[in-house]
Each structure stands twice: as structure tokens, then as C-alpha cells.
Amino acid sequence: AETTGVSDRLFQRKYLKPLLLVCMVAVFNQLDGINAVIYYTTDIFRMAGADKASALMQSVIVGLTNLVMTLVGMALIDRVGRKVLLLVGSVTFVISHSLAAWVFATHTQGWIVIVAMMGVVGSHAYSQGAVVWVLINELLPNAVRASGSAVACFFMWMLCAAVGWVFPVIAKTSGSMAFGFFALMMVAQFILVAKFLPETKGASLEELQTRLFKKTSEHV
């Protein structure tokens, strides 16, 4: 049993499964492409053929989408569950990134570009954006929550910096390749979440740790 307020060494076999799960969620939080779109929204629209004024207005629309879908995620997270939001979000991510990849591959312009960007941002807002910190705190045992969260944050922000640096370089050469990569990452997220991530909705921390440690011990 855990004792509240008592810390423990993170890198032990008994904590391996929850640590891998929170790192998985943190990594996909950046590999879903959200910060590539948020950081370079105006540039993406201009690369797709919009003029400067139109690109700025479309950026505002994408920002409003982020706000609205964040509220949707907050309303649904305790109703449908964290795992369901990630799975459904993976599907809408794949559709949105694939649409964006097609836009750049075919040099299509117009409303379809903003639909693709709204899809990416909206998918993150109601799924990954809504559940990432909740899941990290629910999956990690009390004794290693602080250190485990630090590890997850390290991976998250390292990838944030990497995506922010690499995306414009790749997109300048091939926008379709950049968005195609994000689509593939969301296929991987769907598979891994469906197979390994437990649903934490309505479960106490004690129940979750019992389930995680039981599965870990079964493979020892």
C-alpha cells in the first residue's frame, strides 16, 4: 500500500508500466501535430495560397475552434472517459491530417484548407489536450507522481521543441509529407491506446494501481 506524502524511487520494475503509459500519452501529445499548426498557422495558410489578410483571419477561426472544442472536451471527459476521447480523437486526427496532406499534395486552395486545420486543432482540444494531465496524474502512483510527471514533461517539451524546429523545414520541402507523418503517428496512437491504456474514468487511484501492478506482475 502507498503512504500519502512518501516518495519512492521512480525507476523500479513495479513502476515501469504506469511510467511507460504516461510517457506514451505525453509523446503523442506532441506527435499529434498540434504545435506545428498552432505555431505556424498563418504560414500554413499562406503556403496553401491564402493572402496575408485571409491567413490572419483564418488563424482567428482556428483559435476559436480550439476554445470551443476545449470546452467540449471538458464536458465529455467524465462522461465518456479518457480512453474514448483519445481513440475518437485519433480517428479525427487521421482524417484531418490526411486531408491536410492531400491539400498540399494537390495544391488545393479555398475552404478545404481551413477545414483541415480546424480538424487538427479541434481534435487535439477535445482529446489529447483535455486528457493528458488528467491521465498523467491518475496513472502514476502517489509515491512517484512528482518524479514521473517530470519525466513525462521532459519528453513532452523536448518533442515540442523538436516539432517546432523540424516542421517548417520539412513543410517547406513537402507539406504533404509533414502532415502524412502526423497522420501515421495518430494511427499508432489509436493502436497503442486501444491495446494498452486502461480507462480511468470512475476508478479510484487504488483500483487503478491494483490493476496496473497486477498486469505488471503477470509478466514478471
What report would you give on this structure?
The chain is elongated. The C terminus is likely disordered. It is built from 10 helices and no strands. The protein is mainly alpha-helical and 220 residues long. Helix 1 packs antiparallel against helix 7.
What labels would you give this structure?
single chain; 220 residues; mainly alpha; 10 helices
Question: Secondary structure elements and their pairing?
Answer:
Elements: H1 16-31, H2 34-39, H3 41-47, H4 52-80, H5 82-106, H6 111-126, H7 128-139, H8 145-173, H9 175-196, H10 205-218
Helix pairs in contact: 1-7, 1-8, 1-9, 3-4, 4-5, 4-6, 5-6, 5-7, 5-9, 6-7, 8-9
Shape: elongated
Number of strands: 0
Cα separation of the termini: 20 Å
Fraction of residues in helices? Answer: over 70%
pLDDT < 50 runs, ≥5 residues? 216-220
Question: Which oligomeric form is depicted?
Answer: single chain
Structural class designation: mainly alpha
State the helix count.
10
Strand content: under 5%
Reported for the largest beta sheet, the result is: none
Rg, rounded, reads 19 Å
Mean pLDDT comes to 83
Succession of helices and strands? HHHHHHHHHH
